[in-house]
Every structure is written in C-alpha cells, then in structure tokens.
Design brief:
five-stranded antiparallel sheet, Alpha-Beta Plaits, 5 strands, alpha+beta
Amino acid sequence: MPNKFRELKEQKVAEIKEKMGKAQAVILVKYQGLTVEEDTELRKKLREAGVEYKVYKNTLATRAANELGHEGITKYFEGPVAVAMSYDDVTAPARILNDFAKDHKVMELVAGLVSGEVFDADKVKELASVPPKDVLIAKLLGSFKAPLSKFAYVLNAIQEKKQSEEQA
C-alpha cells in the first residue's frame, strides 16, 4: 500500500514539474481568508486570461521546483500558497492577482518565477504594472502609424501639386 502512495506522489511531482517547466510565469500567492465566492471570482478571471491556478502540496511543489533547477523559489512554498501559471502572457497572472489583492486585503503576492528568474513580491508587483501583450503591440503599432500617416500625407500633397502643375 505505501508504494501506491509513493507512486501517486511521484506522478503529481511529474505533473507539477511539467507545468512549471512549460510556464512562462509562475506566481505564488497567499489566499487564506478568501471566501468561496471570492475564490470562484478569482479563478474565473484567471481562467479567462488563460492562467492555470492550483493549490499544490508544498513538499511536492518544492520537489518539482528542485528537479527543474529552480531552488530559489522553494523557500516561498510555506503555508497555504496557491500557484498561478501562464504559458503565453508573462504578465497576466501577476496583473490579475495584484489587482485582485488590492480589493481583497487577505490575499498577498508572495513570489514568482518568470522565465527562470525568481522574483520577490516587490518584483511581482512591478511585473503586474506592465500592460498586457496586446496593449503593448497596439501602442507599438500606433507609434508606427503616426509617422506613416504624415509620410502618406506628404506623398499625397506632392502628387496633387504635380497634377495641378500638369493641368496648368
């Protein structure tokens, strides 16, 4: 019977390891004190952003992190800690959790693992202030558009001037 439990633990460690290994961002948060309704609301927001949110046994999450070579994050797996993982948008879990924590004081950002680098709570909050990827792309495209519009206006003015000279 003990082998069965060991096997289940090893499977769970392998699952956590796979998810952490694929994730662009892993954010740890203390959630104790949230009501069921608040937790459900948070999970819905995270799911809509494509962020996976789980509570793992700390010893199993620590073992997975160690096996991945992310020993620096293991000290943060203490007490009731939830894990939010994003596979494409690095800023999404930090932004959503930080915004939620502003309205729900019992919630606290603990740490993060972003592209292999360990972030403390302050760095996670900095990451949360970065706009979403689509907003950054829109800003970038907007900055390209202004000079192009001016250039098109100048070309159009030259063409109109040539046409008026040809007609005269």
